[in-house]
Amino acid sequence: MGTQEFNRSSIRVRFAPSPTGYLHIGGLRTALYCYLFARSQGGHLVLRIEDTDRTRFVADAENDIAQALWWCGLEVDEGPEQGGSYGPYRQSERQSLYVKYAESLVASGHAYYAFDSPDSIAALRKTNAAYGIGTRRQMDNSLTQSSDVVQRRLDAKEEHVIRLRVPENETVQFHDLIKGTVKVSSESIDDQVLIKSDGMPTYHLANVVDDHHMAISHVIRGDEWIPSTPKHILLYQMLGWQPPKMAHLPLILSPTGGKLSKRSAERQGIPINVRDYRARGFEPEAVVNFLAFLGWNPGSEDEVFGLKDLEQVFSLERVGSAPAQFDLNKLNWFNGQHLRRLDIEALANRALPFLEAHGIQGQDHRYLQEVCLLVRDRMEHAEDLSTRFSYCFVDPERFDLVGVKKRWKADAADLVRGYVDRLEAIKSFGEETLERELRTLAEERGVGAGRIIHPVRLAVSGTTAGPSLFALLHVLGRDTCIRRLRKAVHLLG
RNA sequence: GCCGCGUUCGUCUAGGGGUCUAGGACGCCGGCCUUUCACGCCGGUAACACGGGUUCAAAUCCCGUACGCGGUACCA
After folding, report:
1. What is the pLDDT of residues A82-141, one digit of tens each?
2. Could you tell me the pTM of the whole model?
3. Which nucleotide is at minimal CA–C1' distance from A301?
4. What's A310-372 look like in SS3?
């Protein structure tokens, strides 16, 4: 693979997670921005698995990442599953490439073999700020030993690493598409390990080699990489490669401002892994919409966007540079918005697994859709049908006590009984009939319609809140209504 | 500690020298609609971190301070 073969003019972005755990919400945000940028530019999205840390490797993490991306509709153009002409897409399968470049760096004097033990490095760090310029002359490495000795030790398979030889007194700088120009003195950069003693590359080397070999045009990643970027720039220079454009995304913070860690998130009821959002029934488009707006905005006052809409309007220039706090309230609002955008069929399918989980099995599909139509404007989560609106499927087990006190007056039982009698007599169970019967009854008894409406709602649903009463009765059907009304009269008296 | 990045309503943000008596959204509060609850609509609440410059003019530019976050691994 020679540099010349790459077409540097085309936009190629990579999402490069480590399979050290399930994909978390922050990782998904990075993936989303990568995807959105690629799509908005007509470019390609590459998924690269950075599995160079064997100690933290989690076997099903890669699959989880793929699932999470799929769930959100983030289609990958090249990757371990979909293949592509720049593969393999797992770093563990590209090891020889990294070693080759590390050795070429040693040959050109930009890197060196180091035999120091982690302990001796740690000891030295206590008295020196960085492992670099001054300290490396005191260490046990190919800079302080004759080449014969070094070669003999290498041949003897003595444990060693390859370190980057950071130049002295240099200002390393790069332009970030989001942050602007970032400058760092080379004095503050460690002689970074490039190849670990197990032969695997570190992130820094593997990342640079792969981004170059995969013809990546734009590196879009989290803010936490800014301090490492100068090391990468140095590597590009030493290897004689053109660095890709850089864009570092601001981090997502917990609602209280700190790092959004697993612990802090869970304490506030925020799911941390993408799979948890899925399990909790969040709309993927809502999660995407919410995440997109955490650090970016279209510059207009529109807020509700589907993935396809976002692909049209996304731009890196409009990504902010300040970190953003996660706001569960807003996510829930987006969820309601996107839920309401679903057609009834889809909405019913969303609710189905939750109904089953709540023991509400074998619902007729047509009936389920009618219920969805009935309560859709009152839903914020797919799960609501099986919780707040479970009375659409099963008789209420209890009556809201505050509601009873407020709505079930002395004459309630009598009025409800009167209404049931009428329901048994009527032929049609349509909304209009139901309403007419109730209003007629109210008139006959000389009471306001509300005097009957409220107790009936309470009797039939157990609660005082809910959809239009007559629509509700109609959907529940005659048998259910009569049964519940009689039962309530019996229980509440 | 050192290095880096950041700072507009509680939160997400618009704004990039005069159009800012700082706009939108979530939340919260009130109203309309209505048999209830929602949805929807209307209205209200609430912010330029602080201190110095530069300028006729600064939320916007510069410098400091404070605070927050990140990095400082043979983790990514």
Report:
1. 999 998 999 999 999 999 999 999 999 999 999 988 777 777 777 665 565 567 777 888
2. 0.93
3. B24
4. HHHHCCHHHECCCCEECCHHHHHHHHHHHHHHCCHHHHHHHHHHHHHHCCCCCCCHHHHHHHH
Per the structure, the residues numbered 317 to 336 in protein chain A that have their CB within 7 angstroms of any atom of strand B are 318, 320-325, 327, 329-330, 332-333, 336
Q: Would you say the C-beta of A429 is within 7 Å of strand B? A: no
Q: Is strand B less than 7 A from the beta carbon of A188?
A: yes
Other beta carbons less than 10 A from residue A11's beta carbon: 17
Supply the mean pLDDT for chain A.
Answer: 92
Pairing of strands A245-249, A218-222: parallel
Structure tokens, A187 = 């004095």
Instruction: Give this complex's ipTM.
Output: 0.95
- Nucleotides on strand B with an atom closer than 7 A to protein CB? 1-8, 10-15, 23-27, 35-40, 68-76
**A:386-425 Cβ neighbours of strand B under 7 Å:** none
